[in-house]
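The passage that follows is intended for readers who have already worked through the single-chain material. We present the inputs for a multi-component assembly, then the predicted structure in tokenized form, and finally a short commentary. You are encouraged to pause after the input and sketch how you expect the pieces to fit together before reading on.
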Amino acid sequence: MSEKGLIVVISAPSGTGKGTVIKKVRKRHDGFEFSVSVTTRARREGEEEAVDYFYVSEDSFKQMIDNDELIEWVRYCGNYYGTPRKYVEDCCDSGRDVFLDIEVEGALNIKKKYPDSVHIFMLPPSLWELKRRISKRGTETEQDIERRIEKALSELLYLKEYDYVFFNTDVDESVENVLTILRSEKMKVGRNLNILNKIEGLKGE
Amino acid sequence: MSEKGLIVVISAPSGTGKGTVIKKVRKRHDGFEFSVSVTTRARREGEEEAVDYFYVSEDSFKQMIDNDELIEWVRYCGNYYGTPRKYVEDCCDSGRDVFLDIEVEGALNIKKKYPDSVHIFMLPPSLWELKRRISKRGTETEQDIERRIEKALSELLYLKEYDYVFFNTDVDESVENVLTILRSEKMKVGRNLNILNKIEGLKGE
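Having made your guess, compare it with the prediction:
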């Protein structure tokens, strides 16, 4: 019923399987847009411009900050990452939900600027499973793995800043969880105050 | 994931078709209990003790108020109506959701005492449809009908005190809406703080 699109942030510690869930949610939910972030980090093999990121120079990024073109940005491991304002706001205004795949810090900034945004935290089924998934990639050293797990645990402490939480034990169940949250959020009274205006009108009839 | 049961209040102007929706929700959702109110009004034909209401004398009702046995009560058209505390709290504590079918004023009192309770407002498809449904009963005079519509409209103004709102255009869709809201509410971070404690524990491992 809600006429404005939702800003939806889904965060999850690396290794939780968020990518797969997001892909399936986008297939199931029409009109669910995906905000592509801007970054100064180098493009990795297999990544595509405007699909994975918009790749820009540090100067361009700083210019975007100065022009207030980013709704949030963070510096992480020496690189900048940010969310372009125009795309997100255009989606919302035209009633399309827009999905932001960002770090916990960035998520906090979004909540401050858009208190109506919906924040979902997806958890790995267990710490054991998280370790297994991170190790399984096989591309990282023992030390890298330890560092990633440490980081995942520290991110979990941001959980209380989110609105919803669930364990990703089954991909289809997780997709259903995200869709359930979206449907429910659209019935929130705060998102449907236009109804109240109509009722006020009826009183006089 | 949430371990405590939810207190769910569903309100709707008379004539919205709430009764049918509630019956179907109870059939679909296991462990959904229904709180039976206490009243001092006389039992009507077809009503059953402990199913429709617990029928008590005014003295008994006042005694219940004094003993703090009611979580809310109102006086309405010369009769008292109240919600017994024990049943509601027993349900929640044992993880069963409990459903309260109460007037807008009583609902407000519940929200104050149980800020975590979930409040749903069901609307008739249109004012025209509401008039049609109220008139269709055929048991009321023209004046009664006008009075009921006036009352329905004034109840609608309480809408902003509720959490969720939807139009009852199709019974099955409305049942699905209620169930969606319940599933989504159970994923609220505030209802799953036990997870946070577990994470704090993991940090030290």
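Commentary: The domain at 7-35+96-203 of chain A is CATH 3.40.50.300 (Rossmann fold). The first strand of chain A starts at residue 7 and ends at 11. How closely did your sketch match?
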